[in-house]
Amino acid sequence: MDISRRIARSRPLATTAMHGRVDAMKARGEDVIDFSIAISHFQAPAPVLDAVREGLRLPSLPYTSVAGDADIRARLAAKVINDNRIPASSAEILVTNGCKQALYQALYVLADPGDAVIIFKPHWPAYVATCKLLELQPVLLDLPDEFTDAVLESLPPARILILNNPHNPTGAVCREAELDRIAAWLKRHGAHAIVDESYEKLIFDGVHVSLAARPDWRELGIVTLFSASQSYAMMGWRAGFAVAPAHVVAAMETLQGPITAAAPMLIQLALAAAVESDDPTAMLDNYRQRRDLVLGLVREVPWMTMRCPASGPYLWADITRLTMDSVGFSERLLSEHAVAVMPGDALGVPGHIRIGYISDDVATLRRGVQAIIAFGNGW
């Protein structure tokens, strides 16, 4: 049977493909350490579990409007007002089945085939893959150390700029002055911004500020994406939402209707409970200790450079002094040492690897990192 031209030239996401390979190995009984993805060893917050239990006691869990239950949207609007200083109404909230759906729908309604979309590398692979599915033109640029006026004015014309803040995989967090410059650039050039703030709660150093935390965010055309996956250790719940001007939300709702309709009501209840729960202090403290453990283990490794990330569940390692073939490095590491990492090629930057350090126990984390070091020393 023939398949469409659009999908025939597409490939599965490298991140999900690697995780799938590891799952298949584990299913065969193989002992594999999976650093290719970040799956928290923490459980979802207690208020989330309580909300689900209470939801299961309701007489029914109804269909909701495609954009989400009215009360849930109001609660999410209160969250972004109080936490993110985004002056949004419930009409500017769209509940989605995870952040990927919100990204797809935002790109679909803001751009037409052939439009340019600026993406900074290293990047979350879904940004590029989604652009290609929609026949948009991803423009890949190096993530700058700082968004200065000079950096911004050097950017090519584009319909949309995608900003990941906090950033996956480097852990960089934009300062407020940088966001002011980006907002000014958007205004001068008439471009839109899609801002992925999925890691907003995983901040070790500095302060997270939303690009849309300004009175003119609607005029600037800023769409902000949120996810419960990492910030609330809810990876398998597929709970996310978008904040966008009301007419953009309406357009995204029109698209979502025939695809999935509303997110499940039980997940909506869980999402609202998550964003209303306390900040994940214990989880963040644990992640910081793990981050520092890995940094200590690799500090004297001559062929690896790993900066201390200000946020996030990943460590980004430069192995160019050893090899530019990070795909080959990752493949051999998996086959010879049963340790999975994500090659930087998947995120647009060869010669690097990404390590998710929040899964399993600390002993397994240490064993896996030591295996990486031993493998590289013998490369």
Automatic annotation (TrEMBL):
Keywords: Aminotransferase, Pyridoxal phosphate, Transferase. Its cofactor is pyridoxal 5'-phosphate. The keyword Transferase applies. Residues 51-372 form the Aminotransferase class I/classII large domain. One of its GO terms (molecular function) is transaminase activity. Coiled coil: none annotated. This is Aminotransferase class I/II-fold pyridoxal phosphate-dependent enzyme.
